[in-house]
Amino acid sequence: MTEEIRAYNEAKSPERRAICDRLYDEVHAVLSEAEVKIWHGAPVWFLEGNPIVGYHNLKAGIRLLFWSGQSFSEPGLTPTGTFQAAEKTYKSVDEIDSADVRRWVAESRVVQWDYKNVIRNLGMSSCPAGS
């Protein structure tokens, strides 16, 4: 875990820090080769320049966000935003199902919309980058 991400997690309440630490461990176990950094104020994993998954603090809890999650075949995520993102929000570390998180993360490796080129191609990509 980088110092930036450690500082992000440590700045949370004890319960929320536990959620962040657990999510980091679960995501990083599957995407250990990915670039991970603080992006727009929260930890995000990138593959080939594309944001894949991240988590951040919301009033409702810690949100785990998958940029291409609406295209996943695995159930359990809630669509969010106007493109392909989907999320799961946690209020307690006990709500985290490791098997679910690892399945979503594994699918995020394969199902990737080409976000890094959205502006260049005006979002007209007709298929995920991993397809």
Question: How would you characterize the overall build of this protein?
Answer:
This protein is of the alpha+beta class. It has one domain (3-121): Aspartate Aminotransferase, domain 1 (Alpha-Beta Complex). It is 32% helix and 25% strand. The protein contains 4 helices and 6 strands. The chain has helices at residues 3-10, 14-30, 98-110, 118-121; strands spanning 35-39, 42-47, 50-58, 61-66, 78-79, 86-90. The protein has a 6-stranded antiparallel sheet with strand order 1-2-3-4-6-5, with helices on one face. A hairpin with a 2-residue loop joins strand 1 (35-39) and strand 2. Helix 2 crosses helix 3 (98-110). The N and C termini lie far apart (30 Å). The model is unreliable at 117-131 (pLDDT under 50).
Summarize the structure.
This protein has 131 residues and is of the alpha+beta class. 32% of the residues lie in helices and 25% in strands. A six-stranded antiparallel beta sheet has the order 1-2-3-4-6-5, with helices on one face.
Mean pLDDT value: 86
Q: Give the strand order of the largest sheet, numbering strands 1, 2, ... along the chain.
A: 1-2-3-4-6-5
Number of domains: 1
* Dominant shape: globular
The amount of helix comes to 25-40%
Write down the CATH class.
Alpha Beta
The biggest sheet amounts to:
6 strands, antiparallel
Give the structural class: alpha+beta
The proportion of strand residues reads 25-35%
Rg, Å, rounded: 14 Å
CATH topology assignment: Aspartate Aminotransferase, domain 1
Cα end-to-end separation: 30 Å
Total helical segments: 4
Q: State the low-pLDDT regions, or none.
A: 117-131
The H-and-E topology, N to C, reads as: HHEEEEEEHH
Q: Quick one: how many beta strands?
A: 6
The CATH level-2 architecture is identified as Alpha-Beta Complex
